[in-house]
Design brief:
single chain, about 80 residues, four-stranded mixed β-sheet, 2 helices
């Protein structure tokens, strides 16, 4: 397994399983698409652009919700 494949697989919890499926959403901002964690109310840090693109592809394929609106709670 390549390093990139291993890194991508470390994010598998973002697109696998049904229990927390809507914890993560894809958030389309003005300039980029981010993985957003609704539980901690922050974007998820993904390890590099090529890995991010593969994670986004797999999340979309799995049917993870995607929005152009801010998907979190108001910040204090």
């Amino acid at each position: 397994m390549t390093r990139k494949a291993a890194v991508v697989e470390s994010y598998a919890h973002l697109w696998e399983g049904d229990l927390l499926r809507h914890r993560w959403v894809l958030w389309n901002t003005a300039g980029e698409t981010l993985v957003f964690d609704r539980e901690i109310n922050c974007p998820v840090d993904i390890d590099g652009e090529p890995v991010l693109h593969e994670v986004l592809r797999r999340m979309r394929e799995a049917g993870v919700p995607e929005t152009d609106d801010y998907p979190g709670r108001p910040c204090a």
